[in-house]
Predict the structure.
Amino acid sequence: MMIQLKIDGKNINARAGTPLMDVALENGVYIPALCYVKGQPCLGTCRVCSVKVGGVVAAACTVPVVHGMEVEVNEPEVTDMRKALVESLFAEGTHNCPSCEKSGRCDLQAVGYEVGMMVSRFEYRFTPRQRDYASEKILLERDRCIFCQRCVDFVRDEETGQKIFSISGRGANSRIEINAELANKMTSEQVTRAVNLCPVGTIVEKGVGFNEPIGKRKFEIKSVRERALAGDHK
Amino acid sequence: MSNHSVKQVNSAVNEIYSHDLPRTPVDAEFLASQEGKIKVSMIALVGCWGCTLSFLDMDERILNLLDKVTILRSSLTDVKRIPDRCVVGFVEGGVASEENIETLEHYRENCDILISVGACAVWGGVPSMRNLLPLSECLEEAYINSPTAVSGVIPIIPNHPDLTKVTTKVYPCHEVVKMDYFIPGCPPDGDAIFKVLDDLVNGRPVDLPTSINRYD
Ligand code: SF4
Ligand code: SF4
Ligand code: FES
């Protein structure tokens, strides 16, 4: 059923129940995202897609559109909230982009540029975290994990459907874990998919590293905004 | 520019700083030509000088600004302390020692606008990799257990009173003094530094567009 809603004052027709995120992007309104993967069940973990729906803050990837909805995306208060959320991720992890394999193709970094982050308003924490080298093909750089849970939900053992990645601990003690035994069974395509699925540089393929020259990396060719608006989710 | 007179020195410790020595007076005609220009400086704390090189990467674009701007301190005029109050002060590098704190505080007191340039100044950058370890472990690795330690010599951690004390952690500049603007990048492009300077000189609000903002 087609319904009408308003995004930033603009009248929009959409199919009822479509995620607000998809509707906004299809209508030329960019909303940053770090955990949402189009076509997959929504995770709603990062909150970087926060907008106002009927004056209330909600994560755009979690909201199915209904008739008469009034949405504010580029409203100052919620725009700054999105920026603050991104800044908190940079303060919480240790994000040394110049020494990161993912730089230039990292969703977090690209979204940082889109929200106009120059510095984090939060204190940089420099929490020491152990790297995990146990698996043959994958290195886990825990400093950079934003706990989006993309890997946890969308990367599974092809035979048994078991999860390969999981999160242990809670709150500040949360830690991304890898089941090395299952990870060693992953095909190289599956490893590449997991590396690309991770929005940051936590899941790194061993022996690959800095394989694209500066200037020719994913988001240097086309920005995250341009990709999202063009429906290019690769 | 003022000429510093020789400061009262403590003869007991026989200590004198280059910035306290008398300086050759600057040519009066040249001084008159600089009258009314916006004074700009750049200093480096703990960084790699990459950002300072990016400052020079403004290249000939700086020429068009030179009728409005004069550069008092940069890597070309490597004085310890800026000789005059500046309108715009760029800072490369974060804070990792007592000397860095003193330099940055003096700079803050003597500049109207301070700008953190590059990853080290903005959040700590490469030097802050030591924040993940206790300082003692870093010093021991560098001086005691170093693979390049001279054999047959008892290794020590340098502790001469003339050496500045390193801080326990490396800090972004804005955790020590108020910083007004931030230019990320490791290092930022000359374009980014030029854009910010050009905005300030022409009285526009500072705006670093997404297209030239980067963190690596
Ligand atoms: S994960 Fe992204 S934001 Fe973090 S250091 Fe790597 S490139 Fe930078
Ligand atoms: S490892 Fe990557 S994909 Fe997995 S939760 Fe962390 S950031 Fe998300
Ligand atoms: S993209 Fe919506 S919560 Fe992460």
Observations:
- The first strand of chain A starts at residue 2 and ends at 7.
